[in-house]
Amino acid sequence: MTVFQAIVLGVIQGLSEFLPISSSAHLALTPWLFGWDPPGLAFDVALHLGTLIALVWFFWQEWVTLTRAFVGIVRKRRVETDSERRFVWVVIATVPGALAGYVLQDYAKTVFRTPALIGVNLIVMGVILWAVDRGARQDRGIDTMTWKNAMAIGLAQMVAIVPGVSRSGSTIAAGRALGFSREAAAVFSFLMSLPIITAAVVFEGRHAIENGVSAPLIAGVIAAAVSGWLAISVLLKFVARHSYGVFAAYRLVVGLGVLALAAYRG
User: Fold this and answer.
1) Are the beta carbons of 128 and 177 closer than 8 angstroms?
2) Which residues are CB-contacts of 239 (< 8 A; sequence separation ≥ 6)?
3) Contact assessment for residue 251 and residue 21, using Cβ atoms and an 8 Å cutoff
4) Burial code of 227-266, b = ≥16 C-beta within 10 A, e = fewer?
């Protein structure tokens, strides 16, 4: 892999991890589209390290607050404040996705990555995101969340193991269906992604270490971190004034294009 290819894939990972357009789909489709050799698991893990850096970088104050909340829960053995409740909601929402990742990880790396299936998933999730966002109410903040809400959003994250669905897309759609504002749904989606991404980096990171650290690997991590930070910043500012319709439309166009190209290539 060249440094240029690594940067391209890093930018794609950073943008598509946090925008509701499916990072796994774009990482699987890009080499297929351009005829590049598949980057491999080690490189995928390195790119997730980049998005992890972006998450910690952008929300560092929130992570400090949640860490203090965790310490408070352990010390008092009860949940009292909004930040302590938010910590609990993130934990609850993480469990279903973690179970799905553990059970279906082999399928996610093989069977689920066919271009035709990815194309269909991009379209279907695009329609769902558009329909839910268009009809949902807009007045709920994260402070109104309940454990049932957190569990429902966590269950939505389970289906994101399939490329083309999108972790952020499924969780944001679930949040919007529950009446959370566009910003609140996005912020909670980002917060609950930290444990999942961290687990992927920790448990699969040994493969990257075994293969050694190269210039393309470093370039990919940096590109993913910078583009991931920008994606979070831009999305939160965008949805404060606009709907998720543009992302739904993008998914439809890309999904149809993938299906057409897959049919053409036979």
Assistant:
1) no
2) 182, 183, 186
3) yes
4) bbbbbbeebbebbeeeebeebbeebbebbeebbeebeeee
* CA torsion angle 185 17 248 238 (round to 10): 60
In tens, the pLDDT along 33-52 reads: 888 887 776 788 788 899 99
How far apart are alpha carbons 116 and 262 in whole angstroms?
6
Tokens of 169: 């897309």
Q: Per-residue pLDDT tens for 98-140? A: 887 777 666 666 656 688 888 999 999 999 999 999 988 778 9
Residue (of 9, 5, 6, 11) closest to 227 by Cα position: 11
DSSP code string of 2-18: -HHHHHHHHHHHHHHHH
The 10s digit of each residue's pLDDT in 219-260 is 999 999 999 999 999 999 999 889 999 999 999 999 999 899
Report the half-sphere exposure of 73 (CA within 13 A, side-chain side).
16
